[in-house]
Design brief:
- This protein is 35% helix and 23% strand.
- It is an alpha/beta fold and 313 residues long.
- The strands form 2 sheets. A 7-stranded mixed β-sheet has the order 8-9-10-7-11-12-13, covered by helices on one side. Strands 3-2-1-4-5-6 form a 6-stranded parallel β-sheet, with helices on both faces.
- It is globular, with a radius of gyration of 19 Å.
- 43% of the residues are buried.
């Protein structure tokens, strides 16, 4: 499998390059980045044969079988559609788009072309959340409530590498997207009630810096999500699963019970790296000719819920 990573110079592009290096039978043959000098330097460092500043150049190559998009969110829909029309399966980093209309356009083109398209909902693949999903599937757990905190200290337009961004991140369409999809995936239900509250908008970035979201499924499961770019303290996303048979706390790829006792996840998946696991699913689905877990159609329900929340502001 020969992969192009578009947006390879960014923080998550690097994470995908590292993850792909751990997967047998996969070669990164092409990378795309913001400037020729930067992407050439990365390609040379990683031993990658082709580097470009446009996706079109990468898609035209015969040695590119599939594409991972780790580009700015605002480009996702246009670029994903270009990949599918070029016959290249595509994994779109979260979120697949920053509007319901663009998400629906991606799904429409996927149906028209039949080319595999997957949304990068990595929480479905983190071993901590997989462990919960396995217990639910076995009938051993039922979620009563999820209490989730997504906290960053990001008052300027910087990325996870501490470098200036060329685009603006968003609490709702990016960070809430993780939890909205995960809540519906873990409960096996679509949200029947949803609302959101916004704090003040940043005077320069034009986005809400604090947000509160509430959701409920038809069976009565609840999700309360707090998000902030103003949090000066422990950073990241922390999930508390309150279930009928125990309470569990998930921190990315680690899981604890309600009393902070660690839970052994060594037998859950081939890796403890969620990015590697989502890349493995993407590649396996292509090779096996099947729909991936997290196909754009699977994730469209989350995008509909995000749109409803946005309408409630």
């Amino acid at each position: 499998m020969r992969i192009c990573v578009a947006g390879a110079y960014g923080a998550f592009g690097i994470k995908h390059l590292d993850a792909l290096a751990a997967i047998d039978g996969v070669d990164v043959t092409s990378v795309m980045g913001p400037t020729q000098a930067k992407i050439d330097a990365l390609a040379q460092e990683r031993g990658i044969g082709h580097a470009a500043t446009t996706l079109e150049e990468c898609l035209a190559r015969d040695d590119v079988d599939a594409v991972i998009l780790a580009t700015p969110t605002q480009l996702h829909a246009e670029q994903a559609i270009a990949c599918m029309k070029a016959g290249k399966p595509v994994l779109i980093e979260i979120p697949m788009a920053d509007s319901l209309a663009d998400s629906e356009a991606i799904c429409k083109v996927q149906k028209e072309t039949g080319v595999l398209a997957m949304a990068g909902q990595v929480r479905r693949f983190n071993p901590s959340h997989q462990w919960i999903q396995n217990k639910i599937a076995a009938g051993e757990l039922k979620i009563q409530q999820m209490d989730v905190q997504t906290y960053f200290f990001r008052r300027s337009n910087m990325n996870a590498k501490g470098e200036p961004r060329s685009w603006t991140d968003h609490l709702l369409w990016h960070h809430a997207c993780h939890t909205v999809d995960l809540f519906q995936y873990q409960t096996g239900e679509e949200v029947s009630q949803a609302y959101g509250l916004e704090g003040p908008h940043h005077p320069e970035l034009g986005i809400a810096m604090d947000m509160s979201i509430g959701m409920k499924t038809p069976s009565g499961a609840l999700c309360t999500l707090s998000l902030s770019f103003n949090n000066d303290g422990p950073l990241g996303t922390f999930f508390r699963y309150i279930c009928d048979n125990g309470t569990y706390i998930a921190r990315y790829d680690d899981l604890f019970d309600g009393n902070e006792n660690p839970i052994d996840l060594s037998d859950v998946a081939l890796s403890s790296n969620g990015i590697e696991l989502i890349d493995r699913e993407f590649i396996s689905a292509i090779e096996e000719g099947r729909e991936p877990n997290g196909s754009v159609h699977d994730v469209l329900a989350a995008m509909k819920t995000l749109d409803r929340i946005e309408q409630s502001f």
